[in-house]
Predict the structure.
Amino acid sequence: MKIGYSVEGSTDRALLKGLQRRWCPHAGLVEGKFRGTTGQSQRREIPNTCRELMFKGADLIVFLRDANDENWRDVLKKDDARCSPQARHLAVFGVCNRNVESWLCCQCSWIASHTGRQPDEFRVDDPKGIFESAIGISRSDKKEETIANLLQDAPLKHWLTNLSFADFYDKLWNKSKFIAGCNLENLRQSAV
């Protein structure tokens, strides 16, 4: 099985790698070639990325990006509309409310226990800065492996309180029913 993907940055890629290891450990990851230098270029390239990843044999194509200061639902709707009809059955779009660090830090006590920080440090509108500091991310070391490994025991059922993560998870859950080799845990069944 091959999971094709397109992301905005290294933390997004690390999150996808961690989820792939947790739910589809035998799947290969195939990154879509990024054509352009901005997020706008990336969004404009959604149809080309779909064609490229379908040509490479992707069984699933995942797009993940940040909403930043926009409404994540509006961004999601726009990105989804750019998907070509030929790829719609393979594509899953995820838009993080603000940024991917908001997902990674939504369970403050958990992330604090894994980074040696205090939970209150992560209770901010935009946890990107504190997350990068706590993990030790730098220009030369994006800590992708560290972030991917964090996902092994992440309390994902608690992440469902973040509506943008819940939307992404629900889409992956529905697609997984038709893809051999993926074993997504039913977070809804075990949600507290």
The radius of gyration is 16 Å. The longest helix spans residues 10-23. Residues 2-181 form one domain.
